[in-house]
Amino acid sequence: MMSLSGDGVLVALSARDEASPKGWGKVTQWGLWWGFCLLWLGSFAALAFAADTAPDEVLSVQAAVDEALANHHLIREAEELEKAAMNEEKSAQAALKPSLTAHYQYIRLEDHPYAVFRTNLGVQQVEMGHRSTYTWNVTLTQPLFTGFALSTKKKIAALDVAVSQVRREAAILDVIKYVKTAYYRVLLAQRQLDVAREAQEQLRAHLLDAQRFYEQGLIPYNDVLKSQVALAQAQQVHVRRQKDLELASADLNRLLGRDLARPVRLEEAEPFVPQALSLDDLMAEALRARPELAILRLEVGKAKEAVRLAASDFYPKVFAVGLYERTGKDPLGEENDYRNPDTAAVGVRMDWSIFEWGRTQSQVRRQRHRFKALEERLAEIESSVLLEVKAALADVQVAEENILTAKKALEQAKENLRITRLQYQQQVTTVTEVLDARTYLTQAESNFYAAHYGRHIAVAELARAVGRRDLNKGDLHGR
Question: What Gene Ontology molecular function terms does this protein carry (predicted)?
Fold first, then answer.
């Protein structure tokens, strides 16, 4: 039997070669060749597996944003919609230019068409055409005046292109915010897992101390039970934190267009540096840069043009027309025994709907009401944006204040646990005090990391509220 191990293959084949009769040498050579092939394939597979499972390079927040912008479906969707709007604009431009149409027709009559003439000799029937007639023509039409309908449609299409471009920028801002939020949540989940692991290890060590003190008769057995319960709770928290990290990493991978189970290694966030923020400047920036407001302003412009487009039906439509036609008894229309086979003509055509029971007037009024409704909506969204900026700035300020207080509380909790453990070693305090001190430290560490990474998330939210891809230090300081 051949083993996948290289040594095993060689040993088995060598044993068979020594004990076999003549003719087994050739078989042994083939076996050696296949053995080396299996070894080579196994080595290649091992290298490939190692490459796949090797930890990724450390990912910075900017690298994560760039990767998401290149792969996210929201960006691709916005790009496709922009292309659609651009083609619609080209279609509107083409409507202003001449159009060429062709027509072909074949008709077969039951009898020859004839004309009746009454003369002194009586009634006579004279054939006037063929029973089978082929007709084809080409028509060139140039709009001269359409009540400003075509030019207005062109303007609306151009505004649609501008809307699609702003929507693409809005999608970019959303993706940046999503990625940064997911990025810092992964870092927070990693820190919380570290806190849970540290708490579990310390409580396990404390349980050993409690068991030793109980064996020495220094503490009652219920103190050991309290330590065991605390350790079990810490183990449950540790499992929960592991799952939280897995979910946070999967969310980040989803935004980056990666496999959800792919391991991630992230660069640590920048340290906290207090900065002065100007609410007035941020609000002014939001009114100018928020894509939602820009889209609404463009929609207001479109609604204004829509009023003009609806009113175009009040006017006549005038077209210049050129026609060339052939009619005959053959498919090409070249043979005609009754008239000239070809005809060319130029002229002007006017179409005008004079009365439609107020339909056009109702359409105009509808578009005017829609225009006014969009103006009201714009005013409402502007006030909502200002409130959103104010709330986002408040979140940043709260996070910054929480960082300072949480840092101080963390130092106090560490010192409290140190002192309490020393007191417990000297049996001058109870196990309850030790467990409480460990709980205080766990909570203080969680609060500190939540405030630290929460501040980064709040800044990302503020940038989105203002309508910027990023807020650098110059943007954050009041001017």
Answer: efflux transmembrane transporter activity; porin activity
